[in-house]
Amino acid sequence: MLSKLKIPRIIGHRGAKGYAPENTLSSFRKAKELGASWVEFDVKETEDGVLVIMHDDDLDRTTNGKGPMAKTPWKEVKELDAGAWFNETFKGEKIPTFEETLLLLKELNLGANIEIKPCINRDERTAVAVANTILNKWPKELPPPLVSSFSMEALKFAKRTHSELIIGALFETLPADWEKIAKEVQAQTINIDQDIITLELISKINNKGYPVLAYTVNDKKRANDLFNLGVHSIFTDYPWKD
Question: Which domains does the chain carry?
Answer without folding.
Answer: 2-236 (3.20.20.190)
